[in-house]
Amino acid sequence: MSSVNPSKVDATPSSRSAVSERDVGAASTNRPFVVATFAITADGKVTTKNFEPVDFTSCEDKLHLFRQRASADAVLIGHTSLERDNVRLGLPADLQELRSKRGQSRSPIRVIISNKGRIDERLKIFQSDISPIIVFSTKRMPQENRKALQTKATLHLTDAKHVDLAVMLKTLRNQYKVGTLACEGGPTLFRALLEEDLIDQLNLTIAPHMFGGATAPTLTGLNNKFLPASVQCSLINMRTIENECFLIYRIKHQRGRRK
Ligand SMILES: NC(=O)c1ccc[n+]([C@@H]2O[C@H](COP(=O)([O-])OP(=O)(O)OC[C@H]3O[C@@H](n4cnc5c(N)ncnc54)[C@H](OP(=O)(O)O)[C@@H]3O)[C@@H](O)[C@H]2O)c1
Known about the structure:
The protein has a single domain (2-252), classed as Dihydrofolate Reductase, subunit A. The protein contains 7 helices and 9 strands; from the N terminus they run αβαβααββαβαβαβββ. It has helices at 13-28, 59-70, 79-85, 93-101, 143-149, 165-176, 187-195, and strands spanning 33-41, 74-78, 109-113, 133-138, 154-158, 180-183, 201-207, 233-241, 244-251. A 9-stranded mixed sheet has the order 5-4-3-2-6-1-7-9-8.
């Protein structure tokens, strides 16, 4: 599997220069280049207080998410988002075709992360065999879940209480040759990756809605603690389409922190 040149996705000069950085970055580290894609409301919420699946973005944004997914070797999702949104993490036929022409598998590898491992094998993702599924979890996963999942996915279960994110990324890079990883959230997972300086790029859509609510999560979830260090971003691309704004931020790594 090779990294895809996202200039095929968005041919602006700024995103082209980002690509070469991406390729260099992925090659020079022992982990994939990690790109997170989120949509937020104008007041910074990613969902409502009940964490219900809410559809607050345009068709253009959905296409944007698909394109980001299509440009990656693997797509990563946190257990809660998988459960709540019940997504397959597939691609429309035309994007599968594009991947095929680029010499890639038709769909990216699908990666699920859960500490507890109580993952329901009846979720839609396990009913579709468009690409391999890899689950990173712990030996806390109950036997019945292990039994049900092991025919549908490859399980990486650690003895530790929590999945080590850096180790997970190294495994994806070394064992599965993942050069670019599309992280589709949710906010708890995004924050955990951010805390360990493991995010390289953030694609952020700002949608023309406001939800309010102190208990509706923002991009970094509901954790009211400050991040260990403030994260600096540089804006590398911005597009507005009708009432939505599509931003691409490069995350600035603190010297020596990048793994
Ligand atoms: N607007 C957007 O762009 C967007 C994008 C994605 C999601 N969302 C929304 O976000 C909501 C869910 O967000 P969330 O923050 O509650 O959940 P999440 O980040 O999707 O998932 C959290 C769960 O994932 C597992 N997990 C997360 N970080 C982990 C780590 N470091 N190590 C091991 N496991 C880890 C744990 O699973 P276990 O509990 O099984 O241990 C954890 O409880 C949903 O409503 C979804 O619709 C919105």
